[in-house]
Amino acid sequence: ELKVEQNPLFLSMQEGKNYTIYCNYSTTSDRLYWYRQDPGKSLESLFVLLSNGAVKQEGRLMASLDTKARLSTLHITAAVHDLSATYFCAVDRSWGGSEKLVFGKGTKLTVNP
Amino acid sequence: DTEVTQTPKHLVMGMTNKKSLKCEQHMGHRAMYWYKQKAKKPPELMFVYSYEKLSINESVPSRFSPECPNSSLLNLHLHALQPEDSALYLCASSQALRGATDTQYFGPGTRLTVL
Known about the structure:
The complex is a heterodimer of chains A (about 110) and B (about 120). Chain A is an all-beta fold. Chain A has no helices and eleven strands. In chain A, the strands form two sheets. In chain A, strands 2, 4, 5, 9, 10 and 11 form a six-stranded mixed β-sheet that branches. Chain A has a five-stranded antiparallel β-sheet with strand order 1-3-8-7-6, with no helix packed on it. The radius of gyration of chain A is 14 Å and the shape is globular. Chain A starts with a strand and ends with a strand. With about 120 residues, chain B is mainly beta. Chain B has strands spanning about 5, 10-15, 20-25, 30-35, 45-50, 55, 65-70, 75-80, 85-95, 105, 110-115. In chain B, the strands form two sheets. In chain B, strands 2, 4, 5, 6, 9, 10 and 11 form a seven-stranded mixed β-sheet that branches. Chain B has a four-stranded antiparallel β-sheet with strand order 1-3-8-7, with no helix packed on it. The chains are: A mainly beta (about 110), B mainly beta (about 120). The interface between A and B is medium-sized, with 26 and 28 residues.
């Protein structure tokens, strides 16, 4: 059974600081995704990582993937209040031509002024 | 256009009611998904349709009945629900192409309350 673990589950940080969210998964996978969810809202796709060593950056967020360690990281640089949200990683298990996404529990990020 | 639409936004129903949730996408995606999300929890997969055929049913109770009338539409029929079924129901779609990034795009969700 595929398991996805994120840590920390709660993260309170000051504006301007850096931090990293970790995502471990238990079995090999084709793809790893990062999503953002604001309270009461839907999920917004941030990154999809396909291969070992993949690194993607968008603004203050950078995601990386180490398939050998089964680890992905989401690094936040110089946090701003607008980044406050819950971040989910999700791992894909392709099945019969469609995807079965298994989500981590999410990291609730609060950026304080 | 990466939009998935869902109606209604909110739904309150009694345990004896029958209602339906609707999802629509016009991105040409051939895989569509229903997820259930309880408060402060991650989404949990319920059903997957691939090329209008049900390909995954995650042991969901029969009071939830999915339907995919065509490649753009996905319905979730609800009957005799329980209060613990109250949740945010999310629809998603993806291209269903092997070897592609195949990101799932999520709709805004329907917040369901069962009284």
